[in-house]
Structures are given as C-alpha cells and as structure tokens.
Amino acid sequence: MAGVPERKRGLRVAVEGCCHGELDKIYETMQALERKQNIKIDLLICCGDFQAVRNLDDLECLACPRKYRTLATFWKYYTNRAVAPYPTLFIGGNHEAANYLWELYHGGWVAPNIWYMGHAGVINFGGVRIGGLSGIYNSKHYRMGYYEHPPYTPDSIRSAYHIRELEVYRLLQLKQPLDICLSHDWPRGIAHYGFKDQLFRKKPFLRDEVESNTLGSPPAEQLLKALRPAYWFSAHLHVKYAALYPHDTPSTAQQRQHSAGAASASQANGSEALGVQHSKSGFTSFLALDKCLPNRAFLQVVEFPDADGPLEFAYDEEWLGILRTTHSLTSLTRRQAPLPGMGGWREGATAADKQFIRDALDAREEIDLAEAEDDPDEICIPETDGADAAAADDVDESPTDEIADDPMFTPMEINNSFHPGAAAAALDARDEGRGSQGLSSQQPAQPRGLSAALAAIMPKADGHSK
Predict the structure, then answer these.
(1) d(C-alpha 246, C-alpha 423), whole Å
(2) Which residues neighbour 100 within 8 Å (Cβ) at sequence distance 6 or greater?
(3) Of 50, 413, 67, which is closest to residue 236 (Cα–Cα)?
(4) Where do the domains of the chain lie, and which CATH numbers do they carry?
(5) What pTM does this model have?
(6) Region labeled Disordered — which residues (predicted)?
C-alpha cells in the first residue's frame, strides 16, 4: 500500500560536512559510492552551511562575501524541479538564508524529503535518535533572545546564526540517550582527543587555539559531557578530523592513548564505513568533515547494524514535551528570560506535557490511518512548470499555506509568536475541512514548518519574554 515506509534492520548513514548548497554534487557522490562499494545508503546528514537558498531575495539574507553568493542547486529541490534521492537531514551553520530558516524555527520540511532540525531539535530515523544544534557560538549573543528579523542589518544578519543559551538549555533536559548529536562548530577541547599533529599539518593556524583550549564551542562541550551520544558530527573548519572522547575511563593517560589509537584507525579508513561505537562504552566517537569540493574528505559513511525501524522521519516524544514545557522561556527581544537552574536543572518535560504529547501523537496516528484507508494511493508530490534557474526568483515564499496545513497536529486556538495570525489561518483551514498529512510517508505539497504546528502543543497563555 502506498505510504507504508520500508522497514529494515541496520542503517547506513552518509555524513557530510559543509554543504554550501551543492546538493547535486553530494547526491552524485553518494550514488557513485553506492555503485563502487555495492551498498545502499539510507540517510544523508549535513552538518551545517546547508544554504537553503530559494531565490535571489534569500541571497540578500546570506551572511557571506558577495562574491560567494550563488543560488547553487537547492532551489531546484524547493520548486520540485528535482526530488532529493535520499532522505536528507541538516542543521544550520554560519552561512545560511536566515530569513527562510527563521520561518522554520522548530524545524520542518525545507523541500520534499529534506528536513531541517531547527535551531535545536531531536528527530528519529530508522531506529536511530538524532539531536542537533544549529549555528555557531559567540559569547556576545549567547545569553540574548532572538531579536533579529528581516530586513537584517550587517550585524543582525550574523548574530541570527549565533546559538542561544535557551537551545542548549532545552537539549540539556534530554534524559533518554542520543545515538547521534550534530553541531556545526566543534565542541571545545575535542581536538585534544585525536591526532593533533595531523590537524596542525593541515591547518597550522589552529595550533594556538588548540593549545590554549579556545578552539570550539563551550556549549557544545557542555552538551557532549552531559548527553554522551554515541557519535558527534561537526563541520565548520573545512578539515576531516576524528577523535574519541572518553567519559568514564580510569586515567587521563589511558584516555589519551585510547583516543589517539581510535582516531588513527578512523583517519586511515578514509571514506570507508566506520563501525558502531556505543555511548554505553564510555566514549563518544567524534568526526568533523570538510566542505564539498573535489579531492576533499567531505563525506563519510557510518553504519548502525543494530538499528531497527522504518526508514522515515519520526517526531521525538520527549523533545516535543521539552518544547512545550519551555515554551514560555522563548524571547523575541534582546533580553532572554531567566532559565531555571541553568547548568544544573535537568528535570525534563513535565508529566502533564509528556501525556499531552503522547495523546496528540496518538491522535495524529489515528488521522493518518483513516486517511490512508480513504485514499491509499494518493501521493502528494506537486508538479511545477518551467525549468530555468531564473524562475527560482518567482517562488512563492508565503508561509500561510505551510502553517495552515502543517502535518503535525490538529490546530488549537493559541497564540503563535513566531508567525502572528498563524493560528487563525490554521483554524480557518480546519473549518474548511482541509486534510492534514503525516510527516513521513506523504511529502507535503509545500515545505512545512513546525513553528505553527508546535503552537498546537504549547500552553495557551503566551508567556514570551518582552
């Protein structure tokens, strides 16, 4: 029956460093690797600088020198002139179309089969649980709210991609283990757990920062120590580098020896698949990758032989509960609301919010089953006319349909601070009897965001900081 996802045991994931809009080249490389090694890749993960640029207006919201501003190839996938041949997951980096990704603050479809994790997020695929943090660290903006909005100033176009303490706070509430964690910049100190001499030969200008322990993100280091994922993938520095971070080993000397040995083996493997290293062993396997250029190490295949689940993206119940519990802490001004017990408080989602999410997901599943029975052969992939790149500038960017038809929950009458008026639009759509679609098996006719959908699970009182 159409819409039933494939299920298999074992998962093969391709991890890519900085994308810079080169989706065509990345997909072509994956297909060549499949033919060469006679394997099937199930999922692509991109570690930032994805550059989901839809049109020329988006280029004006991309923080990079003008000589590097180009439409690249994402616009073809957004307008359905091409369809992503692999389920694709990505976090944001420091070169993104800030205006578009802000529309998807909590994550969502940027194009059919391409899912953005939001400013921070957790998602499941094929039995593997993946967490991510978008942007890079800057101490100046870390404890601020999200005050940036179009039209951006030369300063705000950059501060828009700086991570905020609120997102780290939310991720710290996770109690269930992660298999993978993603960040664009490296966790601070991680370079000490690989072969530093190899890193210095490739990037000699990094030596001072590594030796002074200032290279990398302190919040990412905090998350690494607290969440202890099996894998941590990053990009940003345009170099391949492997390390093994110890959590529970008896001595520093043994830690460094074990880490260096594992890193050496991983570096020697090149583009071949890595074996699974479970976090319960006391180690996190770290890997940073290069950007998509010829003769650069920008792609690595990682195997999860014990993963067992449908090959589809699935919402994470615990994460949605955390978002609901912390919703009132979101600030859309320069001043961030105080975060309860930051650094020590890890209570997670409240019991009431967990139950609310569980009930909402159960209701969503019942709706999907009913729709599948009504029209099992319907596939919601739209058709578009035209084929030239100039037409990308005419793409309709209005989030109205996206909000009204969000695939997550039946809308409820609450305030949505990210997109004012979205709740009313969603209710109008409900009253008109417009159907909803599931996250995984049927792709949306337009890219869908979670910002409005998550409004359906947030407390009715709007407690945003002013």
Answers:
(1) 46
(2) 52, 53, 54, 58, 61, 110, 397
(3) 50
(4) 7-322 (3.60.21), 347-455 (no CATH)
(5) 0.80
(6) 419-466
